[in-house]
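User: Predict the structure for this protein chain, please.
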Amino acid sequence: MPLFSVAQNIQTEELFENGQKLIKKNWIEGEYKKTIIQKGEGKDATYRYYIIRNGIEVGAYFSVINDYGKYYKVDISIVNNSDKRIDFLENNIFVKVKGDLKDSYKYTQLSYLDYSSKVQKRQKSNEIITAVSVGISNGLAGNTYSQSNSNYYNKNGAGYITSNTTSYSPTLASLQIQQNQKILTDLQSEQQRKMKYIDEGYLKDNTIFPNNTLIGYCLIPFSKKINEINFTLTIDNIVFNFNTSNE
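Assistant: Here is the predicted structure, written as structure tokens:
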């Protein structure tokens, strides 16, 4: 259940998206207008959160992903409907988690530089492992192996001799080397695609001009012991707080 607010006087309405019902809840808390949009029900429900103040709207969506590690992913949208430019700064994100954790201070958002560096190291490791495997496979390419048994008879009785034969096919070797190269090329292409996605999507310092929107995401290390995430973003000296629970 979300712990976004315990406000009273909540206005509720039903919406539809691609044939699925959504529940939208709006209310006012002081100078803030807040919204929750619920999709699905029970344990399968997902929630999108929005806070508006002084013409600045911040939206947040929490999910769990496996991408070079397991993380809570926070998708953020920042809409500047004010009459002045505003700055989004990574350092203005504050995360506090609750749960049965001895080292909860470790569970904060990863900066773009920290995460991209981790991904690049993992990708290099993946390429080295794959390249070694491909090299070994190329060295054995074209070889086929067979085994045969021959019966024999002597004064001590009957028996058999096992012989192993290795043959080499240039055509088979060429085909296997091409397949191995494709494995390495496909890995490199997929890793480049993922790195491009991170470069373009991970939240970094940005100036948002009037009537413009910044969309991106950041990651928080995952732990099954975490039962509540308090995610706070400060923009133009305005605090936008998203408090959510996975219980």
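DSSP finds two helices and 14 strands in the chain.
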